[in-house]
Amino acid sequence: MLSVLRVHLPSDIPIVGCDLTPYVLLKRLDKTLISDDVTELNPIDGHFLRYKWYRIESDKNVAICSIHPTEQATLQCLGCLKAKLPVAKSYHCSTKCFSDAWQHHRVLHERAASSVNENGNEEEELFGRFNSTGSNASLSTSQSNPNLANGNTLVYPAAVTHRSGGETWVEVGYSKLYTPTADDVGHLLKFECVVVDAETKLAVGPPSTILTSRVIPAPSPSPRRMILVNGMDVPGNLDLDGRILSAGTFTVLSYNILSDAYATNELYSYCPTWALSWPYRRQNLLREIAAYRADIVCLQEVQSDHFEEFFAPELDKHGYQAMFKRKTAEVFVGSINNIDGCATFFRRDRFSHVKKYEVEFNKAAQSLTDALLPSAQKKNALNRLVKDNVALILVLEAKFSNQSIENLGKRQLICVANTHINVHQELKDVKLWQVHTLLKGLEKIAASADIPMLVCGDFNSVPGSAPHALLAMGKVDPLHPDLAIDPLGILRPPAKLAHHLPLVSAYSSFARPGVRLGLEQRRRMDSGTNEPLFTNCSRDFIGTHDYIFYSGKLEHCMFASMLPLIVIFSCDSNLIRLLCS
User: Nearest-CA neighbor of 218 among 9, 13, 8?
Assistant: First the structure.
């Protein structure tokens, strides 16, 4: 007969809005092991699995700390209640917890007060359509719907309960997948799985169970709104998000979302396991990306399977067309579905796709070594240059217009490059070579069509480095210290490290003459390079690697507004996104 050998959850801390899908290992009559979902419609060896999820409600109410969601709260901030912030944000587990979080916590109070004054609807503006515990309002709860919708099962009576001592067990689902709701916060969940005879419909043997920790609310990220670059003569008005309402403007988002394959406990040991889990992160990422409503979205480190199964279909619902370029697999070791790449999305009502180019730096490396190096040196050269990095280039046509009378009827094209440059800091020559290779390709496109350029991505290069200088200045100083690392001689002569694209870093527009910028934003920029102090904030590195460059000389690509830069204490992600219009 069919038997259950093991039941396991990827993370035993459930989070509101994040799917829980247990791993169930089964043994068949012939001793083979499977982990398939054996349903009543598709029994195996005359048996199927029956599932149940319970919420265990103790007679004692438990509040959860808003900062350390695995800890019980011992104190509550009355200021949050007065400011009408979500109640879940008012709880703390200790006085030290409250003291350490005060700087960020105070900002929430101030923003809540400001939002009330401006809009009269502080909770909607600050936290979007997510309720006080961070769950999506579209998720069903027993209060709002007497029939529970969870997993693939649409109807389930929420009134089935069992009493055991001082606890009440409420049946909340009977499919393998369960999505915790706001009702579950602070409670334990229990998953039950039992083998059932397909003919008699009776259970065979005892059920296998697993108990989770208490359900925690999904932490809400710090709100960020677009701010106008004062001094810019741009027609149109700002909407509630600071977005310029004008037919001739568009917004661009660049975001390294951190591939699940790299989000390991070894690399991010300072992060709780639940915060690294893909079911939790993907919901946050989707919510954030959709909320920005950018017209063009450039994502890096998107896994192939996540693009096909999640991002492409989900963002399609928000009106986006998707293009993807997977990294090459000459160096990568692992499942091909886990290979990440660059994904570019654009709103179908704003742009149409004209042409797609794919850049594989491995192929460029092969061509370079064939042309410049003797056969004896090719192997070592390729070992250094072949790193699987890629770039995705799209030519889009705008469906909106801000043309002058003399240009009426002319197609409005824009070229959007999305790339992720090699991460290894010791390979400075490889980084510079990859950026130079990309720019020479973009030069050819620009020359053939004379169209504006957007160059977005994670360049893994700090401001002032040779790759950044090449992008921002169009050339690299022959005495730049990065040029000292060139074992293959691919950077010589230094004079060839140049291009003629008039690129400008979007965030450096803060420093342009005539632009009035608040002191708070000035402090968050590097005075030497006029770039953000950081776009990447982790335990081991705080600095800027991510940029949006655009063709500065072309009037159709004038920079108008951007996301405000943030300070370290309010960082909610190790990778900071860039958004501008």
Answer: 13
Q: How far is CA 189 from CA 131, 161, 186, 273, in A?
A: 21, 14, 10, 18
H/E stretch holding 547 reads strand 546-551
Q: What is the 3-state secondary structure (H, E, C) of 76-121?
A: ECHHHHHCCCCHHHHEECCHHHHHHCHHHHHHHHHHHHHHHHHHCC
CA 498 → CA 477, 494, 501, 571, distances in Å? 10, 8, 9, 36
Phi-psi region of 172 (alpha: psi -120 to 50; beta: other; left: phi over 0): alpha
Backbone angles phi, psi at 420, to 5 degrees: -135, 105
- Tens-digit pLDDT profile for residues 331-351: 776 777 789 999 999 999 999
Q: 161 with 169: CB under 8 angstroms?
A: yes
- The burial class, CB within 10 Å (0-12 / 13-18 / 19+), for 269 is exposed
Which residue from 303, 339, 331, 297 is spatially nearest to 316, judged by alpha carbons?
A: 297
Enumerate the β-bridge partners of residue 173.
Answer: 53
pTM of the model: 0.78
Rounded-to-integer distance, Cα 430 and Cα 365, Å: 10
The two three-digit tokens of residue 174, written as one number: 């009977």
pLDDT tens string 228-281: 555 444 444 445 444 444 556 888 999 999 999 999 989 998 888 888 889 889
Contact 255/298 with Cβ under 8 angstroms? yes
State the pLDDT at residue 319: 97
CA distance 351 to 62: 50
**SS3 sequence, 242-257?**
CCEECCCCCCEEEEEC
Residue that the structure tokens 């092991």 belong to = 33
pLDDT of amino acid 440: 96
> CA nearest 168: which of 183, 146, 149, 152?
183
Bridge partners of 320, per DSSP, are 347
**Cβ neighbourhood burial of 429 (10 Å; 0-12, 13-18, 19+):** buried
Q: How confident is the model at residue 407 (pLDDT cuts 50, 70, 90)?
A: low
Poorest-pLDDT segment among 53-67, 143-157, 340-354, 433-447:
143-157
Burial class of residue 546, CB neighbours in 10 A (0-12, 13-18, 19+): buried
**121-166: pLDDT as tens digits:** 433 333 333 333 333 333 333 333 344 445 544 444 444 667 766 6
* More confident: 219 or 293: 293
- Is residue 522 helix, strand or coil? helix
Two tokens, residue 30: 């012939």
Please give the residue that has the higher pLDDT: either 514 or 435: 435
Reply yes or no on whether the pLDDT at 105 is more than 60: yes
Q: How many CA atoms lie within 13 A of 270 on its CB side?
A: 6
Number of H helices, E strands in the chain: 13, 27
Q: What is the SS3 assignment for 290?
A: helix
